[in-house]
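Step 1: inspect the first sequence and its tokens.
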Amino acid sequence: MTDPLIRIAEALERLAPAPMPAPDFAAEAFVWHTAPDRLEPVSRVSRVDIGLLIGVDRSRDTLLANTRQFAAGLPANNALLWGARGMGKSSLVKAVHAQVRAEGLDLKIVELSREDLPSVQRLLAHLRAAPHRFLMFCDDLSFSHDDQHYKSLKAVLDGGIEGRPENVLFYATSNRRHLMPRDMIENERSTAINPSEAVEEKVSLSDRFGLWLGFHPCSQDDYLDMIRGYCAAHGVPFDDESLRAEAVEWQATRGARSGRVAWQFFCDLAARKGVRLI
């Protein structure tokens, strides 16, 4: 019969697994997972070429310059990319990372999900000790009225006794400028004992991003140029007059016009033309 003390020890080990071994940073991209903690390497990053991102020139140039500075060991700001859905916020982050690496700078990207924010200090401990520079990326970041995850992020952005590691920069995307719904902010103002303090605690998170880059719905010309750019990049033949009519009808049925809608139309067009996308 197994010794009860041995069984208890084994049960405790399952409840509290051994610390994660030092990661192998051979890859250029990673996804952070918990339970147990691990950095999963990504063999092929899903992204588009930076030249195919239309209508976001100012945000592209600003984010690219900031990322180059960081990768070169110079001061740089955490960035919040906010605004209209489907306008290439996350695509821009991944495209900028690829461009900086193509220029010969050693920069790795680590994706962190919003649900795993409470574990961010454990992730930073691994990144801090590594001889590389990291772009930590959180896509679709937002918080609800009872969500306390934002407190985990404050120390990463600008605070804590250790501060943000010198070799880590944080980029996030969100549909909300202040990361929280407007009705939540207004509710805080109307119900709190000290309304200004209650709002400040939550809104101050977005203030800790040094760069705020806004994304807005694109014009019809930009929408059509996006599709033409995809066709040229992937060798999909098209008649411009037909493409224009079909693309306008497509976005009308979607009730929206954005980079995402342009890509969805292009995928349909490529399939009808018998062109495989690699």
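Step 2: inspect the second sequence and its tokens, then contrast the two.
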Amino acid sequence: MPQLIAVDWGTSSLRGARLDDAGRVLEEKSAPLGILNVPNGDFAGVFAAHFSDWMKPAGSVCLISGMAGSRQGWHEAPYVACPAGPDELRRRLHWIEPGRIALVPGLSDERDDVPDVMRGEEVQIFGAMRLADLSEGLFVLPGTHSKWATVQGGRITGFRTCMTGEFYGLLSQHSILALTLEADAPLDEAVFLRGVTRAGNDRGLLHNAFGVRALALFGRLSPAQSASYLSGLLIGEELRLEELPLGREVITIGASALTARYALALEQRGARVRTFGAEATWAGARALLG
């Protein structure tokens, strides 16, 4: 088994890990050098500056997932259509340097009239599957663009994207709600769950979101509470579209601050939740290498 360097190169950040033969992390690096922040588009130079020392041992292989494989990235690695598992992605790796450095293609879901896409999350899902010893399940990856993916037979059969984090940023900073809302306030769990519950009233997000403003005007939500309530409304809107039988296990993957909110909302709906963080990315890269 060659030494594996796993890199997650997203829109805003660059992260990498050096793994041993068993997939254990030996060393990690990170930098605020997402694909939109690469000086003069010099992806090769940024990669060399951060990872050339890791690539020195003979036989080292680097797999790069995330937006580095997009049209705005280092090179475009075309999407692989669902259903797809590690084998399909392995066959479609886009090699920057044959046998040494490859971009992982993202996935597309074209079951609907409007296609859906992901880049990077597929590696995290395969890693969580490996860590949890699962070949099927429901996986949720919170973020700016949250993903809900279904896995059957070890392959991602389909997924949907929700612009939840982006909508939170827009509403909390660039709408009328910004006048009475403290966007970065700590989570108030009780108020957050009030928002999750409210989202299930079938009156729609456009109506429920204005309620944040009205509750503040009547002194029923403080600016800090308004942030938790809005977050609950948005995440509750995601859950409203999912059928979750009582006791269904859901795997969440991502930063702890976000996965904690989704766990609260999912458990309120009667789901069982397991959570993984950055380790899912590194385990997914190892799964792709075979």
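Step 3: confirm your contrast with the notes below.
The CA atoms of residues 146 and 152 lie 20 Å apart. Residues 4-131 form a domain with the Nucleotidyltransferase; domain 5 fold (CATH 3.30.420.300).
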